[in-house]
Every structure is written in C-alpha cells, then in structure tokens.
Amino acid sequence: MSSASTQPNTPADATSNGSETPGTDTAPSKSSVKKEAKRQEKEAKLAAKQLKQTASTSNEKKAKAEKEKKAEEPVFVNTTPKGEKKDMSQPMGAGYNPQAVEAAWYDWWEAQGFFKPQTTPDGSVKPEGVLRHSFPSSERHWQSPYWSRPHRSHPGRVGTLTTLFVPGFDHAGISTQSVVERRLFKQEGKTRHDLGREAFLEKVMDWKNDYQARITNQLRRLGGSFDWDRVAFTMNPSLSKAVIENFCRLHEGGILYRDNRLVNWCVRLNTTLSNLEVDQKQLEGRTLLNIPGYDPKEKFEFGVITSFAYPIEGSDEKIIVATTRPETMLGDSAIAVHPEDNRYKHLHGKFAKHPFVDRQLLIVADEMVDKEFGTGAVKITPAHDPNDYEVGKRHNLEFINILNDDGTLNANAGEKFNGMKRFHARREVVKALTEAGLFIETKDNPMQIPLCSKSGDIIEPILKPQWWVKCKPLAEEAMKRSRAGELKITPAQSEADWYRWLENIQDWCVSRQLWWGHRCPAYFVHIEGEENDTNDGKNWVVGRTLEEATERAKVLASGKSFTLKQDEDVLDTWFSSGLWPFSIMGWPEKTSDLQYYYPSSLLETGWDILFFWVARMVMLGIYLTGKVPFDEVLCHAMIRDAHGRKMSKSLGNVIDPLDVIHGLPLQDLHQKLYEGNLDDKEIAKAVAGQKKDFPKGIPECGTDGLRFALCAYSGGGRDINLEILRVEGYRKFCNKVFNATKFAMLKFEPDFVPLDMAKLTGNETLVERWILHKLNFTAGEVNKHLEARNFMAATTDVYNFWLYELCDVYIEAMKPMTDPAADPKVRTSAQQTLHTCLDYGLRLLHPFMPFVTEELWQRLPRRSTDLASIMISRYPTFDAGFRSAEAEDKFDLVFATLRTCRSLAASYNLQSNIQLFIHVQTMDEKALFESQVPTISALIKGCTKVEVIEASSSQIPTGCGSAVVSSTVVVYLQVQGLVNLEAEVAKCDKKLDLTRLNLEKLYKVISQPDYQSTVPEAVQLNNEEKRKTLEVELAALQESREMFAKLQ
Fold it and tell me: d(Cα 525, Cα 109) in Å, to the nearest integer?
C-alpha cells in the first residue's frame, strides 16, 4: 500500500487514504463510498485530460519545429563577382528571400552605367528632355525618407529623358563638431582646445569619412540610382571655391555686411545660431528645468515673472518693473515708459539708481511700451534682448554685455556676481533684491523659452560682431519669381508657409564660432598707428585669395603699413548648402554640366527645412546665376515613430533603415545605443523604449518592402507614424509577387516567345481583354498620380492590380486556358496576355521595388526588342489600343456574379460540390455567361456545376437559395438536403421584410411631386436601377420561400 501512495489521484491512493483506516472497526457508509468513487473518477478524468493536452501540445510544438526546420533555407551567400550580372539560369528560390533577391543587382546596374545620364552622341541632353535632381545628405536615419524613393523619377530613368541624380554630403557644421567633441571627451577626456585646431579637424575629418561611408552604404542598399562618379561634398575644393566666390560677390554687391548685433548664442556649443536653429518651448507656468552644463540634480525656475523696484535718484520714489530673467537686470541701462502715461510723465529724462553696480538708468519715453501691461514701466537691457536692442538704438543707450561666451557673468555685472554662472546668478539676484528691500513678487507667467535645437541649452541673446546677409531684396525677388510660376511648391500648405516666411524674413547671420566648416574669406586690416575696431566692417576686406585680399588692404591702408588677420569664424552650413544646385555643376566656372543640368527639375525635401535650405538656395541661385535653381519643390512628410513621437536617440526610437532591411534582434538594438554618445541614464531610458516598441527586435523587411511602405505612407500629410509591422506587410506583398510570377512562368513552354510588342491580336478571350484593359487603366492612373506626386495613390493602384486583378482573377482564370488540352490558339493568346501582364506589371512596380522586379523581369521570356534591364526599359503609359470599355462592363458583370456566388456558398457554409444556376433575362446575357462558365468554375473553389438559365425558357430547380446580382441577373445555389428548411423559410421572411422596407423607402422618394424636376438625372437613373434590383430581389426571395416551404 505504501507503493500505491506514490501515485496521487489514483483509486489505490484513494483506498489507502480513505475512511477505511487500519485498526478501526467502523465501516464507511454507502453514500460516502459513492461520493468518494465519483471524486476519484472525476480526478482521474481530469488527470487524463491534462496528460492528453500536454502530449498534444508537445506534438504540436514538435511538428511546428520540424516544419520550420524543413522550411528553413540555407544562409544565402552571394557568389556573383562584383559588377557582373547575376546568373539567371539557376532555379528560383523556394520562396522570397530579400537577401538573395537584392544581391548583385546594384553593382551590376552601376557597372553598366545605368545611373549615368543618357545623352546624345555629342554629349547633349536627349530631345525628349532632361530630369535633374541633386541629393545632399547628412546621416539622419529616417529624417531623409526620400532615400527610399530615388527610382520614382519614372519618366526619366525608366523612361526616355536624360536623367541625372547627383549624390552628395554636406558637412553639417554644428551637428558634426558637437558630436565629435562629445565623443572626444567621452573617449579621451579631452576638449578640442586640448588638441588644437588642426589636430581636432583631422579627428572631425576621420569621423566624417566614417559616416560618409555609412551613408553611402545606406543609399546603395536603398537602391538609390545616383551617378556616383559625381559625388559631392560641401568642403571639397571645387565646392569650397564656390563658397568663397559667393561670400565675395555678396560683399561686393553690398548684400553681405559686418555689424555688432544681437545674436542667438548657445553657451553649450559656444556658437551663434540662426533663428531657424532655435526651438521655442512653451511653458504654462512655473516649471523647474535641468540645464545642460549644470549638475543634473540641479533644477532652475522658469515660467515666472519677477517684479522689483528701482529707486529714483534724488527721491524716495521707486519705479516697479518686471522680468522673466532677473539676472539681466545687471545689464540694464534704462527704464522705458509710454510717453502718454500720466503716471510717469514727471520722470521723463530722470534717472533711477542701480542697486548693485555704480550705474544710472535713464528713464526714456518710448511708444514700444504697453502702458496697460503690468506697471507700465519696462527695464531695458539693450545688449541682451531683441526689443530692448531696438529701444537702445532709438535712444542711443549704453549697450552693456554682462555675459562671457561660456555663460558666466563678466565684470560688467558687478564684483558680487562676476564669474557666477548665469542661472546661479538668477537666484542670487532675487536674493539680493529681497535683502535690499526691492523685491516685490514672483508670479506664474505662461511663456516660451528659446532652446538650441542641437544641444537643448537655453539660448542667450548677446551682442557679437558677425557677418550678415541682407535678405529682404533677395526674398522679394524669390517671391516675384515664385508668383510668376517659375517655381512650384507642393503641397499647398508648404506653399503658404513659403510666402509667409519670405514676407517676414530677417537678415541672416552667417558667422559661426566653430572650427569645422568654411573659414570666412574675410581679413581684418590692422593699420599701423591707428585704433581699429573689429566690430564694424570698416577695416575688413574680403578676397578670393590672400593675394586679392592683400591688394584690397593696400588700397584701404593708403600706403601705410598694415597686417592682415583672417577671421577665425566659419560660415553657417546653409551658406554652402544654399549653393548646392549649381556648385555641384561646377559653378562659378562655366561647365557643360552647368549648361545642361542647371536648373534642376525637382527638389524633394522635408518641409521642416523649407526655410533653412530651400529658401536660401532660391535666393542665392537667383542672385548668383539669374535662375531659379529648380522647377519644383516637393515637401515630404517627417517620419515619426508609431506613437507619433519625433525620433530621438534618447527615446530609443531612432531606426537605421538598414536594420529594417536586414532585421535586427532586440539585444543588437540595445548594443547600438552603447556605441553612441548617450549617457547611462539616457541609455536606460532608450533600452526601455526599444523593449516596448520592438519586443522581438526588428523583422527583416528587405529594401523593396521598405521603399514601397514609405511611398504608400506618402499621402500629403506632414507626419508619418511609421509602424514596422506595416513595412513587414509589404515584404509579404513582395513574396506574393514573387510566388505569383514563379507560378505563372510555369505556364510558358521552354520555346515560348513573346510578341515583339505588346498588342491585341484579336484572339483574346473576354477575361484577357478585361485584364489588359485593367493593366492599361492602372498604367494611366499610376502615371497620373506620379505626375501629381501622389505616391500613396500610385502604390495603391499598382498594389491593387497585382493582388486583386492579376493574382486573384487572371492567373486563376487562365489555368484552364493554358492547360495542355486547351485549344492551341486559346492557349497561345492566354500566354501572350500573361506575359504582357507580368512584363508591364513588373515595370509599373519597378520605381517602388527595384530589386524584386529586376530579379523577376530578367527571368521572363525575352522580347526581341527588350533592353538589358528593366531599369532602362520604357515605363508603361496609357495605350488607347488596350482600352475596352465593353470588355470591362461585361467581365465586371461576370465578376460581380462570381463574387455573389462565392458569398452565397459561404452563407450556407458550402465548400465542395457547389452547384450554381445563373438566371438571366436576355439571350445576350445567356451567351455571355455561358462563354464564361470555365472562368467562373475556375475561380470558385469547390464548384462542380454552373448552369445558365434564360428567364423565358427554363425554371429554377427546387431547393435553391438565391442572391441578386442586378436587376437582370439572379444567382441560385442548390442546397436541398443540406439545410434546415424551417430556418431557411424564417431567413427568407426576414430578408423579405427588409427588402420590402427598402423598396417602400425608395417608392416614397421617387413619388415626390417635384422629383422629376429637382433631382439630378444621374441620381434618378441610379434610383431606377435600385428599384428594379429590389423588385427582382423581392421576387427571388418569394420564390425561394415558396420552394423551401413546399419541401417542408
């Protein structure tokens, strides 16, 4: 008994532990024995069930593992020598493998010169015209989504135009230098100053070369059809020459000047920024923020306004002012009041006394002041506020700079605050005001604070002598040319933004306090024996060479001795990128490239840099060349993550397109975070974000799936919320195209030869004429949408053709027509039609999916007129010869009937032995459907019989369910013996009630007294067709009900 007890929940175990206990004379009752037996039986059944489930699960897992093992293909290895064509004599793979499909093609395309502009023998553009596009890039991951769409220029590369697509790279001055500086400090604990300018620039160049190689690899893997022999870089000698020429011409024309003005100063990066590089952060009230460069645990107060009093000199009176930046009061030089404010008229021209520095503050009257806001008195800090700067200019006030470049306060702030960091000084100023009895109050204040878009630091307005470009005259000419139709900007929202920004443009500060970039070709002339001011432009000369600058300095010095010193600053990156369309063509030299390929046809860019870059290209292009640099600007959407968030490394949602192409496990995603400049806290946050968004890592989607997805997302909006699962869905579409083509090619005999040109032969069946009509219509729509830059619609058109017309209909319908037993004439015609659909269908897909389409197109039987590659083959366009409205109408009726048949069979859950009867009204309809019986049978799985019945000659067999296709066509399905007759009668009654109700509603509408005169004719015709169809449906339902009732 002890051994039995080791098996729980068994009868033996129950006996040993039951009520019959050894050493006891009391016997158990019958009822207790019965209950115990039931309990044991129940537990035994449960144990058996659990055992069975465990075994079943184990078997399922085993079978699944075996199936996966069987389906797993060996790792693909590309054996094609670089630049050679892939061997197409090998059998196609068992399934679509992006790595295998995409291998070797790009190198072959490039080796064949397909990316180079196709010209006439004398080197000029072809008479059909030219399509020109340039592509500057910095390493932006998804923020350059046009990476995925270079083949979209279908009229060119896959058409007849001379097409040039120039790749290149800008030097991204601030971004690049800041990344390398952070990297240097993280890896070596050094700053750029520790290395010196030349050594540091060598480090930057090494980093640039590494990332340029990465970007180049990305562009190649994405299938960009660039002419790589023309690759450009903004700091190459030829483009640098263009930058110097630009600077000199602008200066010589009075457009570029030097002035000591307020700039946006980033303390963290120690450089000036343009207004466009400053983000505005909205605060609703008091907010505590961390500031770059301070202890991460230290937070500072923003979103408040502090009021305090200045004592009036020679009086007990005080004047109250308010500020959101208390530390700036150390740089105040005046107090402004409105000239009509009676409260302060007696103070005009008097002085207030600064409590912390030995300084008088003049009280000035200025209409800038809103006398209804606050106390009506405004502190004026001309050197640290844009509005105060203008007041200072008007009243000739003292401009007192209190900030050093590193964000500490200088001696002008007073001994107590000298050397203090700016936001520490903010606290200390409030504390000092309180101790002096001058502090009034602090209140919540909704406001915006300016942030550096690169570092996140708070921007300080500060006085700096810089080089500026007068933008008003340039912008006026740009608007004039745009309104004259020389430049098209789409979408319309971006066009409106374009004019609004140009109308309100301000002068552009082009100086940057960096080392990485184009050094200003400006030289300060220090004339011996004179006091020379570097702040203004009087003692500065510019020169294309040092020799030219020296000659100009001699004229300036008028025979006196002088020394020259070049400006240490570099130029804003956009100053060189703004020359891109013509500098890459050789400007300022008069080259053949500049003659043939400038202006460009199209610029595709993100709407977020419409002003950073596009406006500057247009303004500089017109000024320097006399021409608008491109005909059209297409602003694409910005890619965000699936949640609509901006992609950020610290969030862990930035994705390298190559990771989507190849796939990447979650652990490898994490590892890439450690290779950047994120700190440990940011890495932890990013890891959590990756785990949430990509719990299984990123699946392999392939280049074609990625390209197609991004085009399908392009619907004209400003943002794309990218979901990797959707991209993976288009990889499955690639698989569908691959497998459908693979299957279809089995229908070609080895000796099959397609016609030299796709055309109708007169032997085509209805379904052939229909599919060719659909193909032709799709070609027309895709071209129309591409011309309108509606890529979402274009991808939808070609997707629907392949999936729902070619695969779902024609490839199924042609099976009996291509059977060896079929009429040879019918089979040949069906094969020619199939070849045309595959050939042209792949060409339509090619701009979106270049690799899989080339792979499949190369395997098709060749026409004698075919070119070497699908890439250079003519793109399909609408051909009136393939148009057949009659075939479309007829087969659409057949297909509508077919769908109704499927739906009717599904409603009765019939999957086999499906017997259909198509009831028609005319002999023409009878002839049509009888000719399509093989097609209908082929397209309905499990169909064993299709009979066409003309109304006047035959009766419907008993025991049929029905469904109406149109007012003249009704489908019947034999269900006798397969259904519950009583339930079918009830079902018919329910449908009859609904049909009668719909008919009554329609009768009510068309019986209105003014119906004929007020309702449009098209609506009346539609209502009439509805009426006929509902009446036919009513009759069919009544017939079915009577039939089912008789069989009961």
Answer: 55
